[in-house]
Amino acid sequence: MTELAVKEQFVELRGSGLNFASIAEKLNISKTTLIQWSKIYQADICNLKQVHAEALRERFRLTSERHKYLHPNITKKPKTSYLNYRCTTPTCVRFNKSVRTKVILAAVYDFLNKHPFANKKAYDRYVPEMERIIKERNKETESLLRSLNVQLRNLAEHITGTKREIQEEEDTTLKKEYKRDLKEQLEKAAKLETQIKKLKQARERANDVILTYESFIELFQNLAQRIQNIESMAHLDFIIKKLFSNFVTDGKKVLQITQNSPFGELCGTLNPLDSVMVAPRGVEPLLTA
Asked: Strands 254-260, 287-288: parallel, antiparallel or unpaired by DSSP?
């Protein structure tokens, strides 16, 4: 692209309302150069801004006119939506067929009421697993904190430079642009500082998330009731996929439930007559929403 073409693109971008920082990133040209160009082509830029403003006003006017012809008394009948689980096991006779979510949930509630995850053996498995998870998350947190701190330091340098440019610049229009850039930089810095603060707080609370034996027993004894009180289907689906790997159904009722390990052990029963089957770790749910 020739220098003239780049300058024309700059004028077009400035005329559309983009700030110097965004244009510098888009064209890969220093902000100092762009500021010099803005002084040279200031008249062209102002004309383009007026054109864009007029186009927006015209678009708003046309939209308002169209709305006048709408019939305010006509209302659409709300559609009834049903949530379903669909079988994704190619070898299953019900492959690609769906079953109502309420069928699966009814079986889950009934199962959890009959088989609470509450015993000493389950707790002994729970503690080391949580310690392993906390250790991994702490490593990820430290890595993310280092990255965010680097971003914050770099941004602080840009903020210092922008403040200096505001003090030194005599052109009122350019000073206004620098102030806009500074506002964006300060907002970004505030967001980074909030992220860093939250990560540090999470790191400090990490070891407190391991439940005592009494709290563990209380949680799993009331698990069925807690799950039934969840209103978000996304949260319900997440929990179900953690606990169970598969449901065998005839479309109207659940015939068999397969659990993910170690939840089969947490139940305290592995009796096949209760339809409790333990799937190996890593087995993906065969029924997906």
From this structure: unpaired
